[in-house]
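Same chain as my last thread, 61 residues:
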Amino acid sequence: MVYTYEGWTLYTRDVKLKGGKVQTIYFFSKRTPKSGKPCDLPPGYSVGVNKRTGLPYLKKK
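reply #2:
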């Protein structure tokens, strides 16, 4: 199930780091990004909102 928060959709994407390691990142977007796929809220995380900008972000519980 795709997770949405006040019009923002949570997406995931695998990125390759300089050392060659592959890491999964999560990000919120109102539009469809060029890469990444919609995903569910990962276990052990909750959603916080930046007070200054109003943008949602994931934080560990």
